[in-house]
Design a protein that fits this description.
With 352 residues, the protein is mainly beta. The chain has helices at 193-196, 329-351; strands at 2-6, 14-20, 30-33, 41-42, 55-58, 66-74, 77-86, 93-96, 107-113, 124-127, 135-139, 149-156, 164-172, 177-185, 199-205, 220-222, 226-233, 245-247, 255-256, 258-260, 271-277, 285-293, 298-307. The protein folds into three domains: 2-86, Immunoglobulin-like (Sandwich); 93-185, Macroglobulin (MG2) domain (Immunoglobulin-like, Sandwich); 193-320, Immunoglobulins (Immunoglobulin-like), CATH 2.60.40.10. It has a seven-stranded antiparallel sheet with strand order 8-9-12-11-10-13-14, with no helix packed on it. A five-stranded mixed sheet has the order 16-23-22-18-19, with no helix packed on it. Keywords: Membrane, Transmembrane, Transmembrane helix.
């Protein structure tokens, strides 16, 4: 029988204690004891739940760094032993997901660790010339082992960043600087997979459910309708999923293409897609649709054939409700009344 103490804590943190390979007897009380604890820890305390990491055991902020014996007792009898290694205190610090070099325009996660004697602030802001704006750090209330954790997720880096190292620092409510870290930026270069990627498209489809049937040539759609644009790239530019667009003189506005993991099949290249509304007053003809990616290094154009009326085939869409505008008020009321009567009859039939 052994006990497992998860993590080597700092003063003020908490650990999880889990008793392994022990068959607990009915009515038996288990207690964990250590000189580093302020009081014995009940192993059956529901308030000490740590989401699968054992029972929560706080380490006092006054604890000195070093190794402390840990025992678990059942009815006063020691049934397991372990050691708790308390690490030295650490000044407040800010960190990111990892130390890897980032591309311009990507998103990063920031984590501020403020566990240190005397620290008590609740409002913190992260700053950097690499950010589009200062970032508020929220208190991580889900952290059970460190009550002084603050974070910000999906922080957008500027697309126009030059290669280099950028400072990221945290200030409190009074503007005092609390911690700093360095962020390395490097754009894609010739030879990198994401320098030009492996793009396919733009391709078109006429219904949201037919993404995989999109084609780049020979697609026809009526003016005033909605066309869907698809783009695939084996190696998209990191961060590109936030600003991929398709432009065309046939569109009422640039089409925002969202990155979609679900729509693709297993091992398919990453897919971007989105709707574009065709102008209703267009003349018949062929119109270019262009997508620019990889910071302007890739530019591809496909052509969309526009007709002046509803089309059939790949460009066919349902007639809009607006076609009823020419019907008389009485006709519309008659159709509505028939629908209501039919619904009532069905309801009576189903309940009889």
């Amino acid at each position: 029988m052994i006990t497992q103490a998860y993590a080597d804590p700092r003063p003020g943190e908490a650990i999880g204690i889990d008793l392994l390979y022990y068959e607990r007897k009915r009515g038996e009380h288990l207690v964990a004891e250590s000189p580093v604890f302020a009081a014995p820890i009940r192993m059956d305390d529901p308030a000490g739940n740590t989401d699968g990491l054992g029972v929560k055991a706080p380490i006092p902020a006054s604890a000195k760094p070093g190794s402390y014996p840990l025992v678990v007792k059942a009815g006063g009898r020691v049934v397991a032993r372990d050691t708790i290694n308390v690490k030295p205190l650490k000044r407040p610090s800010i960190a990111m997901d990892d130390d890897s070099t980032r591309r311009p325009g990507v998103k990063v996660n920031l984590y501020f660790d403020d566990l240190y004697p005397g620290e008590s602030g609740t409002t913190f802001t992260a700053h950097s010339t690499a950010f589009t704006s200062p970032v508020h750090l929220a208190h991580d209330k889900k952290s059970w082992n460190n009550t002084r954790t603050f974070n910000a997720l999906d922080v957008q880096l500027r697309r126009t960043l030059h290669d280099g190292t950028y400072a990221v620092w945290v200030t409190d409510a009074a503007g005092k600087r609390k911690a700093e870290v360095r962020l390395k930026i490097r754009s894609a270069r010739p030879g990198d997979d994401d320098y030009r990627g492996k793009a396919q498209g733009p391709a078109f489809f006429g219904n949201e459910g037919y993404l995989l049937s999109a084609r780049a040539k020979g697609f026809t759609i009526a003016a005033g309708r909605t066309v869907y644009v698809r783009w695939q790239d084996a190696h998209p530019d990191p961060g590109e999923e936030e600003w991929m667009t398709a432009t065309s003189p046939a569109f009422r506005a640039p089409a925002r293409l969202k990155f979609d993991v679900v729509k693709g099949h297993e091992e398919d290249d990453p897919i971007f897609w989105g709707p574009a509304r065709i102008k209703s007053d267009l003349k018949r003809g062929s119109y270019p649709v262009t997508i620019v990616s990889h910071h302007g290094r890739v530019k591809k154009t496909s052509y969309l054939t526009i007709t002046q009326g509803p089309t059939r085939g790949d460009g066919e869409t349902r007639l809009p409700i607006a076609v009823w505008a020419g019907a008389s008020t009485g006709a519309i009321a008659l159709v509505a009344a028939a629908a209501v009567l039919l619904a009532r009859r069905r309801k009576r039939t189903s309940t009889s």
